[in-house]
Amino acid sequence: MKVHLHRSNIMFCYYSSLLIIASLFVPLSQSLTCPLVLKTNAQVERRLLNEGFHRDLETAVYLSSPEDLQSCLVLVKEVLPPGAYFDPSQLRFLKPFGGPDFYIPQMINVETPEHFSPRILAYFYVLPKPLNHGRWMVNVTVPVHFRYHRARSGTSHPLEVGVRLQHPAILLQCEDVGGDVCTPLAQLEPCPPSGYNQCEWLPVHTFSTSEAVMAVIPVGNTDLLDVVLLTTTCVTAGATLLILVTLKKKKIS
Ligand SMILES: *[C@@H]1O[C@H](CO)[C@@H](O)[C@H](O)[C@H]1NC(C)=O
């Protein structure tokens, strides 16, 4: 009997604490019933095409959702490191040829080297294409450029640097899905199509099967500076002498 009482006490304690914990979570889960955000996944896969300082960056996003994303617009939000940039005038030029709507809030200096350059924020606005049931995709393929890096000593440093482009964040803006339950989850980002004003966007969970893409950029070697200077001086002096000699010969003849 004693043991029995003891056990029921423990059970009571157990159930009541479960109840207390459950009641704590009920208001939270009620405010988080936005399936558009909670049940939509974005798989991001990227490739850097071509070689050298001027490349194409392909970003394929595969969305899967129980909601109909037909009325949604996708925002691909990029943050480029100081070693890379998008050229806004080039992107503007590409728009009539199928390039995406975009917004870049900063002035971009396309001349500055990496160590004098800021990170760059860029927003791309694209409509998703339906694939099969419950799946959509967007493909943003745009030119990306890499900046020159400060030359350094080849004896103490590798003469290449890797510039890594992190995967973008993916957000949605939908006309007839979402609704009030989603409003508390919205975040403010620039409005389509060109960033005028701030709009509410719903962030979706992203994942990827691939690492962030990386460009390997050659770096100038300061150890070669003496050699370069000496060679330039010799060649210039030699050429000058040659001209003088030729002129003199012509005068004589
Ligand atoms: C994305 O678009 C580019 C050109 O617009 C194309 O070459 C590429 O194959 C597309 N990628 C995917 C995964 O569809």
TrEMBL record:
Any GO BP: GPI anchor biosynthetic process
Keyword presence, Transmembrane helix: yes
Membrane topology term: Single-pass membrane protein
Chief place where the protein resides: endoplasmic reticulum
InterPro entries the record matches: PIG-X/PBN1, PIGX
Presence of the UniProt keyword 4Fe-4S in the record: no
Residues that span the membrane, as ranges: 227-247
GO CC entries: endoplasmic reticulum membrane
Top-level division of the source organism's lineage: Eukaryota
Pfam families: PIG-X (PF08320)
UniProt keywords, alphabetically: Endoplasmic reticulum, Glycoprotein, GPI-anchor biosynthesis, Membrane, Transmembrane, Transmembrane helix
UniProt pathway: Glycolipid biosynthesis; glycosylphosphatidylinositol-anchor biosynthesis
Subcellular location: Endoplasmic reticulum membrane
Family: Belongs to the PIGX family.
Purpose: Stabilizing subunit of the glycosylphosphatidylinositol-mannosyltransferase I complex which catalyzes the transfer of the first mannose, via an alpha-1,4 bond from a dolichol-phosphate-mannose (Dol-P-Man) to the glucosaminyl acyl phosphatidylinositol (GlcN-(acyl)PI) intermediate to generate alpha-D-Man-(1->4)-alpha-D-GlcN-(1->6)-(1-radyl,2-acyl-sn-glycero-3-phospho)-2-acyl-inositol and participates in the sixth step of the glycosylphosphatidylinositol-anchor biosynthesis. Probably acts by stabilizing the mannosyltransferase PIGM.
Official protein name in the record: Phosphatidylinositol-glycan biosynthesis class X protein
Gene source species: Halocaridina rubra (Hawaiian red shrimp)
